[in-house]
Amino acid sequence: MRRITRITTVGIASAALALSVTSCGDSSSDSGSGSGGDKAAIAYDIGGRGDQSFNDAAYAGLAKAEKELDVSGSEAEPSDGEGDADKVQRLTELARSGNNPVIGVGFAYAPAIKKVAPKFPKTTFGIIDDASVTGDNIANIVFNEEQGSYLAGVAAAKVTKTKTVGFIGGVETPLIKKFEAGFIQGVKDTDASVNVLPQYLTQPPDFGGFSKPDLGKAAAQGQLDKKADVIYSAAGLAGSGAIEAVSKAGKWNIGVDSDQYKQKGLAAYKESILTSVTKDVEDSVFNLIKSVQDDKPETGEIRYGLDEDGVGLSMSNPAFTKMTEVIEAVDKAKQEIIDGKITVKTAP
After folding, report:
1. For a FRET experiment, which of 144, 149, 228, 246 has its CA 20 to 30 Å from that of 186?
2. How far apart, in whole angstroms, are the C-alpha atoms of residue 92 and residue 20?
């Protein structure tokens, strides 16, 4: 199995230097390993690897490809306060280093991929959570987040004892508003008397709401003070702060993107994580890498929804699976969404 090289980038110049140095390192450390010398790379979103959520799910897909497909993986970290120019340089160097595919984790990479992809027509560029930038060598990996969030709303409405639940969004963007919309609709369709407290940590162009746990913790405490006893956080690394606050208050969390009950970094709080709204980012990354290796690269919009378990609710917490009435309501709602009987909103 090949070693994944992790690259921390701080600005354009250091990004180029770091990538050129680690490329040399890969050449020596990977000498003689693998069958075809295939290389793949992911460039992380705000918060980077270790967010116990979105970025970690993408990393799991790269690690799976490294193990099962014998590819050499590279990772590139974002820097605080970076601009599109930094992302352009990062993707350019990853492509120049022979990685194929090169995957941008998050919609923030859209402007950079628009500039870089045409310059490397033989390289497949993947972007997760964005369908606005298209091209012959661009794979747009998108999810029906609102569907999974609807199921979370059903569960929250069934579990709450105070008739008050909370939603914490990292940054108020159209993507995160899909999470909010589905959650609120699921709550209200299940029990219209339940009050939902929506809150966003930051507004664009400030994307710190995805990376600052203290903001998530403060927001969750505010909602707890308003009697919320179930809080759903879609806030990346900032969500870990919310999970901590909710856990210490003895209330229920609903996680996001990854199965956060299983995340080692959240092990101290896992008993409070009722369930998580999962997005199959892991398999989406793996599938794109495999498609390139098979010389049948995925391109265009690749959508993951409830129908093929591309989104859903995790069932890792035994306390959740024992809630028979809740599980029955969730399963019923899931089937009705798949059958088209329920159309979930994508905006509040």
Report:
1. 246
2. 12
Single out the residue of 238, 266, 282 nearest to residue 59, CA to CA: 282
Token readout for 185 is 């609709």
Low-confidence ranges of the chain (pLDDT < 50): 1-3, 8-36
Per-residue pLDDT, 34: 35
CA 325 to chain centre: 29
Concatenated DSSP letters for 120-169? -TTS-EEEET--SS--TTEEEEEE-HHHHHHHHHHHHHHH-SSSEEEEEE
Of 46, 25, 42, residue with least CA distance to 102: 42
Type of residue numbered 250: G
* Residue 297 token pair: 């690269």
Q: List Cα–Cα distances, 220 to 47, 129, 196, 278, in angstroms.
A: 19, 25, 13, 21
Q: What are 139's two structure tokens?
A: 């794979």
* The pLDDT value given to residue 68: 97
Q: What is the pLDDT of residue 81?
A: 78
